[in-house]
Amino acid sequence: EGSNLSGDAYRHQHEITVTGDEVPSPFSSFEATGFSSEILREVHSAGFSAPTPIQAQSWPIALQGRDIVAIAKTGSGKTLGYLIPGFMHLKQCRKDPRMGPTVLVLSPTRELATQILDEALKFGKSSRISCTCLYGGAPKGPQLREIERGVDIVVATPGRLNDILEMSTISLRQVSYLVLDEADRMLDMGFEPQIRKIVNEVPSCRQTLMYTATWPKEVRKIAADLLGNPVQVNIGNID
Ligand code: ADP
Ligand code: MG
């Protein structure tokens, strides 16, 4: 039934509030997304029947190349919300991965970064997208070798990525799709200085997506500093 709803009716039914100019209608089905056949095959074989509300609303915005700040609770499907548009971004502007990643995802913890990597490996496999993970509490050597070998997507905790940047063993000059996942948690953990140093290495002509469960003034401030005229998507009555 969902697929026949108008954009406003879909948003109302799923408690989606959007703030921004000329917001596109949500994708109420996977078929509406225009994703590649490889990606559609992966979501179908995962047994998913429809996009989650955050995916439905943020995918068409992300595919337009626009910045997004999304406020949604955990378990709402945010990871694929940013990973699949990242895959589509790579399809259009993949660079030489040996010169550095094109897509960078910042995540607060090793555990979360590993989960994101697993999702990227699973859903990006048939699109032949390469990715790796950088986190603390593990030797740097193997992580540096992955970077040298060249990857399209890097998922990193701010602390370890900043350490590696200071060693000059990674370039972020090719990053054109930047994700700050669980931004509120990264700030709570005291990562703001590292995040700012990292983002300073990323060219300003980029697409930036920020995900957060809460919307306090610290998060609003970093969003205002790092994103350009973002569309704000709220799911549920947070805020
Ligand atoms: P969040 O980051 O918002 O906490 P996740 O991205 O980790 O949520 O997703 C939670 C779970 O939902 C994961 O197991 C993921 O594979 C699954 N999932 C993602 N998208 C869909 C979908 N469209 N339909 C069903 N399950 C989904
Ligand atoms: Mg998440």
Automatic annotation (TrEMBL):
Residues 59-233 form the Helicase ATP-binding domain. Belongs to the DEAD box helicase family. Residues 28-56 form the DEAD-box RNA helicase Q domain. This is RNA helicase. It comes from Gossypium hirsutum (Upland cotton). A motif (Q motif) lies at residues 28-56.
